[in-house]
Amino acid sequence: MTAIRNNHAIFDGKGLAKYTMAIAVMMTGVPAHKIRKFEEFGLCNPCRTESRQRLYSDNDIELIRQIALLEKEGINLPGIKVILEMKNQIAPNKKGVNQ
Q1: Which residues lie below 8 Å from residue 56, measured CB to CB, with a gap of 6+?
Q2: Do the beta carbons of residue 35 and residue 64 sit within 8 Å?
Q3: Structural domains of the chain, count
Q4: What pairs with residue 56 in β-bridges?
């Protein structure tokens, strides 16, 4: 079974899509309907098999945990989206400084 993300197969360490929704729910403690809501809102983007089954990577699992924690702290989904976008903008800059 090959996972497809943006029409490219993903086969790298923590980015390897290997967990089904049921496993993602067990690993994160986040109900499936919330994970789907996160995806619908554009907060996460799991890979899909050719039959459209969602597959989550270790990176996706960590992201779901972060989103759920922020939501538990009272931040709404638009706010979470802004926070995640800011983190993504800062992360590349940190790599450049450390190199």
Answers
A1: 17, 18, 19, 20, 21, 23, 24, 46, 47, 64
A2: yes
A3: 1
A4: 19
Cα–Cα distance measured from residue 9 to residue 12, given in angstroms and rounded to the nearest whole number: 10
* CB of 98 closer than 8 Å to CB of 90: no
What is the domain range of residue 32?
4-98
Structure tokens at 29: 């403690």
Beta bridge pairs of residue 54? 48
Give the pLDDT score at 13: 75
SS3 call for 22: helix
- 13-17, 18-22, 92-96, range with greatest mean pLDDT: 18-22
- CATH number of the domain bearing residue 31: 1.10.1660.10
The predicted-structure confidence for 32-44, as pLDDT tens digits, reads as follows 999 999 999 999 9
Angstrom distance (rounded) from CA 84 to CA 19: 22
- DSSP string computed for 62-95: HHHHHHHHHHHTT--HHHHHHHHHHHHHHHHHHH
